[in-house]
Amino acid sequence: MIxxxxxxxxIFDQVSVLEKSAYKTATTAFFVVVGMSLTANAYxxxxxFNSWFAAVGLSLLLGFIQxxxxxxxxxxxxxxxxxxxxxxxxxxxxxxxxxxxILFVGLIALSISFPLCSLLMFSQSMNxxxxxxxxxxxxxxxxxxxxxxxxxxHFPFHVFTELLNESGFKFLLLISIFIVYAPLxxxxxxxxNAHFEYLEKARQEMLNIVAIDYNExxxxxxxxxxxxxxxxxxxxxxxxxxxxxxxxxxYKNETKHTIGNKIAFNQFIQSIE
Length: 273
Description:
Layout: H1 9-12, H2 17-49, H3 52-78, H4 96-120, H5 122-139, H6 144-151, H7 156-163, H8 167-191, H9 198-228, H10 262-272
Helix pairs in contact: 2-3, 2-4, 2-8, 3-4, 3-8, 4-5, 4-8, 5-7
């Protein structure tokens, strides 16, 4: 279950009991939101089409979309840049990615909360729809085709609009929106808690993987270099990036370096032939 946050179970097993409990709480909150999503979308399908088939189909379709977006929002929030240290990692400014994350979760919260709160006020919702249908009947009595269409049409958005005038509905709406945001809030607290271990352990593990990959690449490059240039005496793993590197050597004293320079590379090749 903990994999929903994209956690590596090998690293997760190494953290404290308190931290494990915090991650499990965030995961449980996420699954609560998923349950709310399935229920709300099923009721929305019923409100729109008055069909169990539509209710199940819309529940699965929109539920999967909302599940995927919420999970991506949580995983990307929890992940850390490779070289960032956990110590003193306090956000000094609001990032654009964070704004988009909050907005997308907000849209999902609204799409879940309106039909879900309408379901909680089921009797009142049905009364509002029936009263609206009667009003339309009275205003279109001479139009038989319109009467038939009105009879078979449902008005969920009119119901939402009317319910917004009720203080009880507004209260339920706020609670529902808060619950949808709860996993994001919990994961954000985990993300910026300097006392928790998982993020730092995951960062170190990633650095180790990169170091191993780097050493393997250098070894393979050394074999190829010695094969193509038998007179080569340089050992690649002993070279310093901006002091001895064949690429960027003419830019090593500048603040801004380019990715590569053909002339510098050719000069290096000529020097070892």
